[in-house]
Amino acid sequence: MKKITVLLGGLVLGAAATASFAQTLRIGMQEDPDTLDPARSRTYVSRIVFTSLCDKLVDINAKLQFVPQLATSWSWSPDNKVLTFKLRNDVLFHDGTKFDAAAAKANLDRDRTMKESQRKGELASIQQVDAPDPSTLVITVKQPDATLLAQLSDRAGMMLSPKSFQGADNAATVGRDPICSGPYKFVERVQNDRIVLEKFDKYYDAKDFAFKKVVFMPIPDTTVRLQNLRSGSIDILERLNPSDVAQVKADSSLVFAPVTGLGFQQFMFNVANGPKAKTNPFSNKLVRQAFQLTIDRDAINQVIGGGIFIPAQQPFPLASPYHSDKFPVTKPDIAKAKALLKKAGMETVKAELTFGNNTIASSTAEMVQAMAAQAGFQLSLRPTEYAAMLADDSKGNFQVDMRGWSGRVDPDGNIYNFVTCGGALNDGKYCNPEVDKLLKEARTVPDEAKRKAIYDQAQTILQDDLPSLYTYYQPWPFAVRKKVQGFTPYPDGMIRLKGVSFSKN
Amino acid sequence: MFKLILRRIIVAIPTLILVSMLIFSLQKILPGDPVLAMAGEERDPAVLTYLREKYRLNDPLPVQYLAWVKQVGQGNLGVSLRTDIPVTVLVKQKLPVTIQLAVMAMFFSILIGIPLGILAAVKKGTRLEFGANLFALSGMSIPNFWLGIILIMIVAVHWKLLPASGFVPPSEDLGLSLKTMLMPAAVLSTVISAYLMRHTRSAMLEALSADYVRTARAKGASEWVVVLRHALRNALMPIVTLVTILFGELLAGAVLTEQIFGIPGFGKLLVDAVFNRDYAVVQGIVLCIAIGFITLTLIADILYILVNPRLRYA
User: What ipTM, to 2 d.p.?
Assistant: First the structure.
């Protein structure tokens, strides 16, 4: 009898263990996130973690439209200077304190004023935040800001428990123990190993979240990440290597789920940054135009991208309503490229192409080197370590570089800082007052059609000046195990777990 | 003997200071700016300036160094610029992981390397020696990352015998913890056991041709007694040093192996910190590694004295 009891007990325990295992979702990520403080975080992968951890005022759907999250509705005043949010009143932070307009104000004020805040620029247009009653949040802006809602749909709109950021050294403590109001709460983090979140039972939408636990595991090697997925050690992986696409498609236990993202890969030319720009052949517009005519974006997509590197001519992704048909992808035309070089007074062009060293970047660089050579470009390649490249580029120590951008929902985030005169990311120091004027104006126009017309005007100039050359849109190739149901990839590359579950069998 | 050990410890202190200065100045030579590396895609000039000031990056190097030494003296290794986690917490998290991996790898290496070395020396000129040499050669020349990926593909993906990667603390599930560590420890031990085999073999060969071995044989001792009691005891001396040094290397981080198998140990932490220019972490970890090495060398010296009584009176 005793034996049977023990046996039964064992079976029950075993079943319980399996059940709890089955309720844990493991996500393999390419990198280890940086700090988990939404106000200071900078990496793409940390945003993936935040998506389950911290709710925002508004969210986006797969069509990039804004949808309610902590705010149920919002409206602009007729002069577009006051944005009023109505907030949910059934929201608790993970420490049990209540979310209300005062908490939202405290968060926005922290993001706007804290010295280390990376969100300051995103919220620069805000003049004042008010909380007239617990469910009403009123934001007054200095001038109309069409980008604000998009900012609040990302880290700038994420809400931490105000209790968690009071005190002297709040920045670091928030970063290692974030207390938000999302569907999952923070449990522990082992750097380079895992971030564990646990379901927050008091979440207002808890029934739509199936997993008891979510574990984010950084596995930088793409091959190893895929092997982990195939062996069942993880359930979802982000950023599959394009060369592994065929392998995933052929595996009946896996599902390939790619989406074209909001970001892009680009070549940035050093037009006017420091002494190196003066001797840079690419500071001549004709040379840049000739270079563009040598590049076969579709070939890069097929050969290196496995068909998921969708060719890009403009910084606005396909999913964006600001993507314009007026600028089709340039087809290569070597004869015309040679003619342009001749017009520029150069038969051959010697230049150096810098890029952060990884397999995809170096094969792209090699391919571009070969393509451009047909028209007389002699590109030497300088693969470098990414952090070193950033430091060099900001000092103007480059001729042309290859770099990526993870993309933003609002078009402004994909263009303004790259091409305006003082733009923080404008390492090539391209400067055209007309472009500045248009892009500044576009920031203030809330009407989509009117705003698009302005961006089209700016793009007409930029497509001729070519301070940057876009090659392809950043894809977010996910691979998931077949038992994961209800997973939809979003263009912003985030993993939204609402409605995602494991199949019973 | 106590005096001897004390003398060694005293010698270790200037070494440590020199090493710390070296670490500090070397990483400043690295191209790239920690604040810029941290900022990555997003660069707000005001924030960058503030962070440079906060982390004293604009101060002259000696000032930065002294501030760091003072801080370390208070038991504070700083905070990771990237993740906000204190370096001491990181060390506490990573050290047991790396020790577990190193101990398991060393265990396999000793188990394979030393007996194989003895056999190769005793059976000199036979197929057995050839086989042992072949093993050592392949162990040294097959890259760890390649072997790792192949093993993952065969053992984890096809046979589904062991987990592909990751780490489970022994306190959580000892069996699973050992299972996850099995492959990486085996991969790591290929090189180490190869080294041990080669060194044991040559040390044994030397010992076997020594006078005392001839004497022992002449006295009629059995071959195994000659090999194990007389030759091996003497041959073990350089092996002891080698084992401690190799163990130190294992602790310093089996970088690629940790990367492939996703083991959150010292090596992986250090590599990531270097790439992210996370100075506080690099300095803290390298300092710990240096202390570890110095301690191990000290232990090697002491063991040496214990194994060889002649040195006690030196």
Answer: 0.78
